[in-house]
């Protein structure tokens, strides 16, 4: 079952989105060798980024960043459009091997692994300043924190559910749903959505049973008619290039680059989002030093 993102308008009351991200989360897990608990945390965040990315235009980007005082440290995820029918996404965690015991409910202790901290949401546009919103973490389970961000910072009452089913062998199922009440919808619209979301089986259970994104969408919309349906592929991607890594190296300054060149024949930089290695020879570093 390929990863997909679906969006639709449900009646006159809500925009709803559903995604299956099993392959995407498996790719993030594999590239960073994440522990099961960190896989759950990063997988939820990157799935949230995909859902937030549903309303992006080309050359816009959504970045979600959680900075907590728990063992994971910082985790981050980005989503953007690769073309008009494909969403690209990536994610990483500062301490990818952090692990905590399963909690009392038999679930990954994502909240404990994240700790107290902040959620930062950045929307970057093709031109102009990015929009940045920051809210304190509340539940630290990610889905509720993203819903709280949308309600507080963007004044859009929303329901978010995210799930990752992982074990030491890998990712079994991942996905999520997002519903946003449309302006002018009645007071009962958000209560109805919350009721349907609560009545839904866990998204990971549905995906593990081979249900697709369309099924998730219908679970959330109930018997309300869906209009303007949109379907997009979802896949892992990265935005790193050698030029961007060069810019970071230049930012280290002349003396740091000179001392790097004295100490080693080659300088290696690894993209924290995709794990790609960039190797610079002494001559290349020399050229950077002259251009600082
Ligand atoms: Zn990269």
Spell out the key features of this protein.
292 residues, alpha+beta, Hsp33 domain, CBS domain Like, 10-stranded mixed β-sheet, 12 strands, 33% strand, globular, binds zinc ion
Bound molecules: zinc ion
Query: Beta-strand level of the residues, as a percent range?
Result: 25-35%
H/I helix tally = 10
User: What is the CATH fold-level name of the largest domain?
Assistant: Hsp33 domain
Rg, Cα atoms, Å: 20 Å
Q: What is the 3D shape?
A: globular
Mean pLDDT: 93
Contiguous low-pLDDT stretches (5 residues minimum) are none
The class by helix and strand makeup works out as alpha+beta
Q: Describe the biggest sheet?
A: 10 strands, mixed
The beta-strand count equals 12
Question: Strand order within the widest sheet?
Answer: 7-6-3-4-5-10-1-2-9-8
- Distance between the first and last residues' Cα: 49 Å
- Helical content stands at 25-40%
CATH superfamily label of the largest domain: Hsp33 domain
The CATH architecture of the largest domain can be named as 3-Layer(bab) Sandwich
* CATH C-level name of the largest domain: Alpha Beta
Order of helix and strand elements from N to C terminus: EEHHEEEHEEHEEHHHEHHEEH
Short description:
The chain has 292 residues and is of the alpha+beta class.
């Amino acid at each position: 079952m390929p990863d997909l993102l679906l969006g639709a308008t449900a009646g006159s009351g809500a925009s709803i989105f559903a995604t299956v991200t099993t392959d995407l989360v498996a790719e993030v897990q594999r590239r960073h060798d994440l522990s099961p608990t960190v896989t759950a945390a990063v997988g939820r965040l990157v799935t949230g980024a995909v859902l937030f990315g549903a309303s992006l235009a080309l050359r816009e980007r959504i970045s979600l960043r959680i900075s907590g005082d728990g063992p994971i440290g910082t985790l981050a995820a980005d989503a953007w459009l690769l073309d008009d029918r494909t969403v690209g996404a990536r994610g990483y965690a500062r301490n990818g091997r952090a692990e905590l015991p399963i909690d009392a409910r038999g679930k990954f202790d994502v909240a404990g692994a994240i700790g107290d901290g902040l959620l930062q949401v950045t929307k970057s546009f093709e031109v102009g300043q990015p929009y940045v919103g920051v809210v304190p973490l509340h539940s630290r389970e990610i889905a509720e924190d993203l819903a709280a961000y949308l309600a507080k910072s963007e004044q859009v009452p929303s329901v978010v559910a995210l799930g990752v089913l992982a074990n030491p062998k890998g990712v079994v199922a991942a996905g999520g749903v997002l519903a946003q009440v449309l302006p002018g919808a009645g007071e009962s619209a958000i209560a109805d959505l919350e009721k349907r979301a609560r009545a839904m089986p866990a998204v990971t259970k549905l995906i593990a049973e081979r249900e697709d994104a369309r099924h998730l969408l219908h679970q959330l919309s109930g018997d309300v008619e869906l209009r303007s349906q949109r379907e997009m592929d979802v896949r892992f991607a990265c935005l790193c290039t050698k030029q961007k890594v060069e810019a970071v190296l230049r930012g280290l300054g002349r003396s740091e680059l000179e001392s790097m060149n004295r100490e080693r024949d080659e300088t290696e930089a690894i993209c924290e989002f995709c794990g790609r290695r960039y190797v610079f020879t002494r001559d290349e570093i020399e050229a950077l030093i002259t251009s600082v």
